[in-house]
Design a protein that fits this description.
single chain, mainly alpha, globular, Sel1-like, Sel1 repeat family protein, Sel1_AlgK, signal
Length: 266
Amino acid sequence: MKHVFLLIVAMAGAGPAFAQDTTEADWIRDPAMGNYKAYAEFKMAHYDAARHVWEVLAGRGNPDALFNLAILAEDGLGEPKDLAKAESLYVAAADAGGFKAQYRLGVLYSGDGPLRNIDKARHFLSLAAQQGDHDAADRLASLAHPDRPPSEFEQAELLSSSGRQAEAAAIYQRLADSGDRRAQTRLAWMYESGQGVERDLDEAGRRFMIAGQAGDAEAQYALAVMFKTGKGRPVDAEQAEQWLQRSAAQKYPPARAALAAQHSDE
């Protein structure tokens, strides 16, 4: 959930202004900007404003927007939880090439929840693995060896997919404390959305910083947005640009899209 860098002034009490300072035509012309605007709203828990932007982009088949709408539906952020709706949106995002949705479906279909379907899990995990998603490749390997217990990280992912967020957070916490940067990033997202832990943007920012400094591209992107918006980190345009560049250098798709959109406006 993320994306791009036009000049945004983050002011205390400013309210849901981020999506209002551009138009639907702007988002359609530059989906990276639209996704970034929506992510900024998401950080402030302005879920209705974020959803509006993502719905506009989802109508154009944008996989990131479809994925993020699925997250809102699955986690019940600003709307009732609706797993069937989330599944439909994840499938649409996956079919549009979204590797995050492909991986999420793989986890949902391979867990113990109501969507369990191992054939579908293998299908979507294979698609994500082909795009270089290492977590998907690990989960796919575990499915090929059902006699081998899943790793602690996989256990946390499966718990999260079945709605047992607090249990997942406890495992991510333990792994993060032992230096696992992926778990650190997952835990940061949980603090950002208030899933399994009490919502705390400052703690999310602290944990994204630890993971970002350890080289996690997803955390680096999140830091770029935080430093740009002043949510979870103080406003610092220079640091925002540095973290964006570091994430893009690792070929993290949202960061690369953000940079491309930024340069097209110069």
